Amino acid sequence: MTRLKTLLIAAIMPFISLAGPIEASVITCFPGSEIYELEGHSGLRLRDSINDITVNWGLFDFNAPNFVYRFVKGETDYRAGACPTDMFVGLYAGDGRKVMEQRLNLTARQAETLTSLVRENLRPENRVYRYNYVKDNCSTRILDMIERAIGDTVSLGVAPENITGDHPSFRNSMRHYHATYPWYQFGIDLALGSGLDRPISNREQGYAPVTMFHLLEKATIPDSTGRQVPLVLGTTVLNEGLPQGASLPPTPFWQSPLFISWILFIVTLSISINDIRRKRLTRWLTAVIYSVSGVAGLIITFLIFISEHEATSPNWLYLWLNPLCFIPAICVWLKKGKITVYSYQIVNFVALILLIILWSVNVQSLNPAFLPLILCNLVLSATYIGLYQCHTRTRRQ
Q1: Does 45 share its domain with 81?
Q2: Same domain, yes or no: 224 and 155
Q3: 107-134: per-residue pLDDT in tens?
Q4: Which member of 98, 128, 142, 376 lies 3.0 to 4.6 Å from 241 by CB, making a disulfide possible if both were Cys?
Q5: Residue 155: inside a domain, yes or no?
Q6: Which domain holds residue 386?
Q7: Are residues 145 and 8 part of one domain?
Q8: Is the confidence at residue 20, as pLDDT, over 80?
Q9: How many domains does the chain have?
Q10: How confident is the model at residue 226 (pLDDT cuts 50, 70, 90)?
Q11: Which of 213, 239, 265 is the last residue of a domain?
């Protein structure tokens, strides 16, 4: 049975009635190989003397009508489901992923309240929710359920320093988990703007299930006397996982966006130097680079003005990648388009310098592979401006 089919069965499986005493646990599945598995996954385990189920808030169907378009637009409707715990664990253990369980220190009443909340959430009219990658997902939903069950706030532990470094932000956290998937992070850095770089709290770092695992390890809750007691009674390894982990091995440097971007810059610089020497523009290079930039600009335009995704606006890459990039791509072939391209390149050159300044003062953190691509545009702008002025002077003599 494929994972998709199994998840769909879990999504429609009726919630099994539980009768006390009920034990509650958080199950964390460490990263897998798919891009939507890189931060891990969480489930809430509920069991009594007869039944043992795990509730999952991370169910989706790639085959749903217009799934890709709706996902890009931000209409990310996920659903909650329940399935036997051995099925849940088996799905991730079968991929070689490490699976850990944290038993929760809840009173019988709190466990019953938690079960009632989950049962209500799994009703057909309530199980679908608008998923938010960093604010409302399989990890944050479990924490919310626990806090509602205890009627108080969980005091979380501290996330490991190696995850977000000295400057915790959503982007830095993602870069940690996406380290071996540079093209995926390249796309995220392209699509998501400066909102992803704001400082985030310890709690917000728990959007990533693996980070939440660490936060829960040292978390505390108030007992009946108001004294802080550990939330987690104990941690158990349900599956050791592969020694090297279940994610893909690192991308070879020569296949990374950074390497390819620098190769493109070297090619652009070499052709531009030759153009200056022969005082003639290589139009196909301008057309190709600005056409690709224009397509990227259309995507960013969609994300900024139409998408509902978190942190797509403001995106200062719009100074570099926008639909106006089609102007030089088209007008460079037109005899009467020279002045239009010249005017565009002056504005473009200033905009690119401004973008580099904003990057240097940390207004928006840019992917390292963006620098050589931005330099490509600067070189093309400077080359066109220089050639245009040279030809103008020649005609006047």
Answers
A1: yes
A2: yes
A3: 999 999 999 999 999 998 999 898 888 9
A4: 98
A5: yes
A6: 253-391
A7: yes
A8: no
A9: 2
A10: confident
A11: 239
What's this model's pTM, rounded to 2 decimal places? 0.90
Question: pLDDT tens digit string along 301-357?
Answer: 999 999 888 789 999 999 999 999 999 999 999 989 999 999 999 999 999 999 999
Q: How far apart are CA 123 and CA 141, in angstroms?
A: 16
Q: How far is the CA of 172 from the CAs of 180, 185, 187, 200, 205, in angstroms?
A: 14, 10, 14, 10, 10
- Domain identity same for 217 and 364: no
Note whether 36 and 138 are same-domain residues.
yes
Residue 173 lies in a domain: no
Average pLDDT score, the chain: 91
Residue 166, domain member (yes or no): no
**Residue 125, C-beta contacts closer than 8 angstroms, at least 6 positions apart:** none
Alpha carbon distance 261, 172 (integer Å)? 21
Looking at residue 7, its pLDDT comes to 52
